[in-house]
Amino acid sequence: MDRGRYQRLVGKLIYLSHLRPDIAIAVRIISQFMHAPKTTYLEAVMRILRYLKSSPGKGLYFSKHGHLSVEAFIDADWVGSVTDRRSTFGYLTFVGGNLVTWRSKKQNVVTRSSADVEFRAMV
Predict the structure, then answer these.
(1) Which residue from 80, 73, 72, 74 is spatially nearest to 114, judged by alpha carbons?
(2) How far, in whole angstroms, is CA 71 from its chain's centroid?
């Protein structure tokens, strides 16, 4: 299996996931295996590419709402990943009612409580 090809494809999907939040979770999962990809992971990448090909025109749409207020939302889960027991947090930022930034990230350490997860997410 060509590791460089896998890394290039996943890198492009990471970039595309900023405009296509519907593929974000799948891309996050396949990007965890960039250093040691297997054939099954490449098959998952190809499945995502087939999905993208079958659903053109989907993605973020920016519309005019007549205001420029900024809203932000944050959330975290505790021990959300079954494989390594790490928590995940995420945030969304809206400007004028339009989603402009978002992110989800797995914590670097295993936390012992949901309050610890929320604190780490805010930091």
Answers:
(1) 80
(2) 20
